[in-house]
Amino acid sequence: MKVRIMNKKQIDFFRGVLNHQIDELMRHADHVKSEMVSQSTQESESMDRASADTDQSLKLKIRSRESLLIKKIRNALERIENNSYGICDACGEDISILRLKARPVTTKCIHCKEEEERLERLMKD
Description:
- The chain has four helices and no strands.
- It is mainly alpha-helical.
- The longest helix is centred in the first third of the chain and has 39 residues, at 8-46.
- The termini are far apart.
- It has one domain: Four Helix Bundle (Hemerythrin (Met), subunit A).
């Protein structure tokens, strides 16, 4: 079995980062939801319909992205619990601590991610 480069203190650090991120996203989602409800009741008073629809559409896109990020954070927390956090899904090697600090939800090491993006660009061309 391969020796992991992350120790308990580092795992606890990332667990804390991920939990903080999910808490912030959930608070923001609650705020946006209540704002959308409030705005829809006031929309005829304060803005025209087109502006309200555009604003609502933008908020829904943001919520959709936040929902996707929440799912990725939950998956990362699950990987922490099953001791697979920080291991690249593609090659099985450890993901660098610096990469995890930059993107704690990542599932691929930088080399595999770059290769994935290179192949995606080739498919588009």
